[in-house]
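Re-run with default settings, no changes from the original entry. Doing this only to confirm the output is reproducible before filing.
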Amino acid sequence: MTPTPSGDAEQPMPLVEAQGVSVSFGRRNVLDAVDLKVRAGEIVTLVGLNGAGKSTLIRAILGIIRPDLGKIVRAPGLRIGYSPQHVHRDPILPMTVQRFLTLGAPAPREKLEAMLDEVGADAILDYPLAEISGGEMQRVLLARALLREPGLLVLDEPLAGVDVTSQSDLYRLIATIRDRYGCGVLLVSHDLHLVMAATDTVVCLNRHVCCTGQPQMVLRDPEFISLFGPHLSDTLAIYRHLHDHRHDALGEPLSIGSGASEGSHTSGQHP
């Protein structure tokens, strides 16, 4: 059971937390006093322009680099499954999907088959890694991360190399895995349309945290609008938001007894 802080039985302790994290490379300040939390059962998405520090923050959370200031706090015994943005696939290297999945962590074939089935790629276990599609590769990377039975999934650009028709399917798969395993998910994405429809919390990064919160609140934040432009913000504000509650003026959820209707409500149509 995930521990909860005293006096707040409804908020589990974070699986991982960045507390005032600052990172510099030479004279270049890449992250400045960044705070971030990911809890079990929550999808948190990092957005920001190129050079905003997203990959550096991910590397700090994974323990690959050490912050110059601040710290990363992980829940005791936390297992992290990581899916990188890119994996070089050499067509000359005769590596199968099965071999790739077991690099550094042997597993029986039955478990590999079950995990690929979980991510919708059950037929490619014996395929050469270099010959599978971009979408299949992302599913293999997700399966490899899940083999660790993680409490936290860290996904760096999970839509990289995925065709447009498969992007929504992959996001739905991530949400399904979150629901099934109760793990936390931290992902980096440039696809703001899908992010706003498929995440619980958005963290907008520009070396510091510009704004953070529920998608519909972040869209109205002046710093988000300054970064991405008012026209993009207007476009992204039209999306389908499915849940069983409404929000007050501050973005806090209202109970059904406060006037929300069960089922779903719609703020326009998702593009």
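The longest strand covers residues 28-38. Residues 134 and 161 are 5 Å apart (CA to CA).
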